């Protein structure tokens, strides 16, 4: 990483070359200490792949969300300062593969949430959004207007996707099998799919929180408290989740000493950063809800 990308003594949004410091207002920090000194937010970073060692003043007023990764600590004063200015802080796994917590505060605006609720509450508009979600997966708008039919078509597509990816990686595939009461009893490919889905859902959790959308109000999923998160995660099942799963499964089948969960977490973190998965999710949410991009209103 080039040190020339940093403003001296300051983590500048326009110049700092660190993952996901972009127009979405997300700042990713890892391996360091986040604290407040003289009313200024600081991050003392250890040397890492993402950031050179040093102490950086952070312009939190221009951020929507700070994502604090592994190897980091945070002081009580940080929570107080960020709460006062409406900046979200979330503890995450590497690359956004886990989403542990975030203070329940927003960006000082309710327009995204209100628009989300309006679309969800209207049966016709809710179906329109669901059809747009399926269009994103299929590359075209399907003529069907029955959500059950659309779910059935999607199910067939995913079954074929499993078969194709298994063949591509040379993995014996006996079908999707998952026992919620004993998930570790599944074969390696099915365990890989379970873990990959969990990691992509975590990325979607971050994107939904960053936009201020409403997790319980799903357009395809219905009963879950994070139904909209599941909607967003499913948009990337073919592009990210399934390929990641079978790639990791191949590695573990070749070397049984590897942990499928650890292997997938590492691969997912790398893929999320390489493909800018979370920023893409944020843009997709804004597009679906027709939200304007007004600086901090991410």
Automatic annotation (TrEMBL):
Gene Ontology biological process: defense response to virus; maintenance of CRISPR repeat elements
Please list the cofactors this protein needs: Mg(2+); Mn(2+)
This entry's Enzyme Commission designation comes to 3.1.-.-
Cross-referenced Gene3D superfamilies, in alphabetical order?
Answer: CRISPR-associated endonuclease Cas1, C-terminal domain, CRISPR-associated endonuclease Cas1, N-terminal domain
Q: Does the keyword DNA-binding apply?
A: yes
Q: Cite the binding residues for Mn(2+).
A: 154, 221, 234
EC top class, in one word?
Answer: hydrolase
**Taxonomy, superkingdom:** Bacteria
Question: GO terms for molecular function, please?
Answer: DNA binding; DNA endonuclease activity; hydrolase activity; metal ion binding
Q: Which UniProt keywords apply?
A: Antiviral defense, DNA-binding, Endonuclease, Hydrolase, Magnesium, Manganese, Metal-binding, Nuclease
HAMAP family assigned to the protein according to its UniProt record, in alphabetical order: Cas1
Query: What does the subunit comment say?
Result: Homodimer, forms a heterotetramer with a Cas2 homodimer.
PANTHER family named among the record's database cross-references: CRISPR-ASSOCIATED ENDONUCLEASE CAS1, CRISPR-ASSOCIATED ENDONUCLEASE CAS1 1
General function of this protein: CRISPR (clustered regularly interspaced short palindromic repeat), is an adaptive immune system that provides protection against mobile genetic elements (viruses, transposable elements and conjugative plasmids). CRISPR clusters contain spacers, sequences complementary to antecedent mobile elements, and target invading nucleic acids. CRISPR clusters are transcribed and processed into CRISPR RNA (crRNA). Acts as a dsDNA endonuclease. Involved in the integration of spacer DNA into the CRISPR cassette.
Q: Say which family it is in.
A: Belongs to the CRISPR-associated endonuclease Cas1 family.
Q: What is this protein called?
A: CRISPR-associated endonuclease Cas1
> Which species is this UniProt entry from?
Alkalilimnicola ehrlichii (strain ATCC BAA-1101 / DSM 17681 / MLHE-1)
Q: Taxonomic lineage of this organism?
A: Bacteria, Pseudomonadati, Pseudomonadota, Gammaproteobacteria, Chromatiales
């Amino acid at each position: 990483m080039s040190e020339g990308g940093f403003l001296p003594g300051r983590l500048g949004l326009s110049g700092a070359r660190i993952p996901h410091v972009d127009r979405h207002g997300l700042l990713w920090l890892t391996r360091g200490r986040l604290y407040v000194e003289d009313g200024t937010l600081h991050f003392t970073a250890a040397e890492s792949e993402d950031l050179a060692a040093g102490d950086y003043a952070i312009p939190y007023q221009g951020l929507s969300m700070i994502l604090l990764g592994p190897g980091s600590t945070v002081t009580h004063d940080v929570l107080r300062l960020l709460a006062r200015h409406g900046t979200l802080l979330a503890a995450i796994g590497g690359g956004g593969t886990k989403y542990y917590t975030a203070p329940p505060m927003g960006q000082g605006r309710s327009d995204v949430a209100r628009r989300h609720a309006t679309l969800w509450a209207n049966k016709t508009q809710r179906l329109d959004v669901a059809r747009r979600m399926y269009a994103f997966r299929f590359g075209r708008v399907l003529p069907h207007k029955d959500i059950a039919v659309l779910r059935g078509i999607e199910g067939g597509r995913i079954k074929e996707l499993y078969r194709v990816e298994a063949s591509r990686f040379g993995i014996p595939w006996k079908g999707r099998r998952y026992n919620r009461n004993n998930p570790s009893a599944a074969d390696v490919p099915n365990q890989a799919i379970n873990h990959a889905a969990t990691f992509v859902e975590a990325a979607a959790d971050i994107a939904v929180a960053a936009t201020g959308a409403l997790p319980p109000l799903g357009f395809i999923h219905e009963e879950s408290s994070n139904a909209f998160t599941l909607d967003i995660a499913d948009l990337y099942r073919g592009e990210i989740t399934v390929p990641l799963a079978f790639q990791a499964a191949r590695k573990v089948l070749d070397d049984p000493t590897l942990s499928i969960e650890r292997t997938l977490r590492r691969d997912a973190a790398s893929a999320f950063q390489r493909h800018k998965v979370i920023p893409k999710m944020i843009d997709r949410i804004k597009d679906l809800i027709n939200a304007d991009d007004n600086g901090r209103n991410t």
